[in-house]
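Duplicate of #3305? Posting structure anyway:
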């Protein structure tokens, strides 16, 4: 049969590992802290069972990896890495896995797809896993999934540079979290007033191609204007007895800049203790672009309709 890399679960897991090294390193650090001597569940372990095998290599006493997909390669890799005697792989739905294999000291749950809507279902899955497989002091990796959102005019570059500065401020916060270093001294680099007064930096003119990237690709802050602050949506925290993850049905976001609001950027932060494992952004158009001015309120409706474009209304302040 000809080689067909498309749709190969092992290959998509390999590229997840290789192309997001910060994710892998943060997970490895979290497991180095918590796995030694522990019993570990890798919920949704994937075709390669990498995190289960890594936990065993880092000294876990016993590891169970569970995934709905086939796991023959995960078993081979566990043998190849000398941990086949401590790692068991179960091919079944997590909701149907036998609770008698637990409870576990550590539960790994890297099951997310980086889309806020799909991932609410995955958060709820992990809450059910916690109920069935955690004890009172189980450590979860990740232990929190946080969602936030901001509204944008994606067709107009921000001549003041504030949109880019905000993105840089958030980048510094991520760098602080990933490195464990405080970087307050670097913040002056991205302060818009400082930039304007000392450097006179201007946002480069927009090319038609850049507009296209902003509308359909990964959000490029050079070509858009942020019209709201970033607003907290929800945080799922995993622990035995934690509340069921949910999003508010209507989310109110205060408008801070005038413009034509045509989309939102969701950000999902996957966190384990003080480690940021992964931060991803998803652009979504609103159902109808709206002119907005400061002090108005943007209401996003997160009911079943936000599969494609998110329903949005604007009310006066
Ligand atoms: C994004 S992949 C991540 C794989 C692996 N945890 C990693 O980080 O490399 C998510 C995995 O969760 C599994 N999964 C999702 N829902 C599941 C369920 N209800 N029961 C079992 N496995 C599930 C999928 O089959 C998929 O392999």
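Output from current build:
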């Amino acid at each position: 049969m000809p080689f067909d890399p498309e749709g190969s679960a092992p290959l998509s897991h390999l590229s997840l590992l290789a192309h997001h090294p910060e994710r892998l390193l943060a997970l490895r650090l979290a497991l180095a802290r918590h796995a030694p001597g522990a019993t570990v569940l890798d919920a949704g372990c994937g075709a390669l069972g990498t995190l289960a095998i890594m936990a065993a290599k880092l000294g876990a006493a016993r590891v169970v990896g569970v995934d709905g997909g086939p796991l023959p390669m995960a078993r081979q890799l566990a043998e190849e890495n000398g941990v086949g005697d401590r790692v068991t792989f179960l091919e079944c739905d997590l909701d149907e896995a036998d609770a008698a294999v637990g409870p576990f000291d550590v539960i790994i749950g890297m099951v997310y797809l980086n889309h806020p809507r799909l991932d609410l279902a995955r958060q709820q899955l992990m809450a059910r896993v916690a109920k069935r497989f955690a004890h009172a002091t189980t450590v979860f990796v990740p232990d929190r999934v946080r969602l936030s959102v901001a509204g944008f005019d994606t067709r107009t570059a921000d001549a003041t540079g504030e949109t880019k500065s905000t993105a840089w401020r958030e980048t510094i916060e991520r760098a602080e979290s990933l490195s464990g270093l405080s970087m307050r001294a670097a913040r002056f680099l991205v302060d818009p007033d400082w930039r304007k007064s000392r450097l006179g930096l201007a946002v480069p003119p927009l090319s038609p191609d850049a507009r296209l990237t902003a509308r359909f690709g990964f959000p490029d802050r050079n070509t858009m204007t942020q019209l709201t602050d970033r607003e907290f949506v929800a945080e799922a925290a995993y622990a035995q007895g934690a509340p069921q993850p949910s999003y508010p049905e209507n989310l109110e976001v205060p408008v801070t800049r005038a413009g034509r609001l045509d989309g939102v950027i969701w950000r999902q932060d996957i966190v384990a203790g003080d480690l940021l494992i992964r931060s991803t952004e998803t652009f979504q158009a609103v159902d109808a672009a709206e002119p907005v001015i400061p002090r108005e309120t943007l209401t996003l409706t997160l009911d079943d309709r936000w599969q494609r474009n998110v329903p949005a209304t604007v009310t006066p302040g």
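Confirmed duplicate; merging threads. The first strand starts at residue 39 and ends at 43. The chain is about 30% helix and 30% strand.
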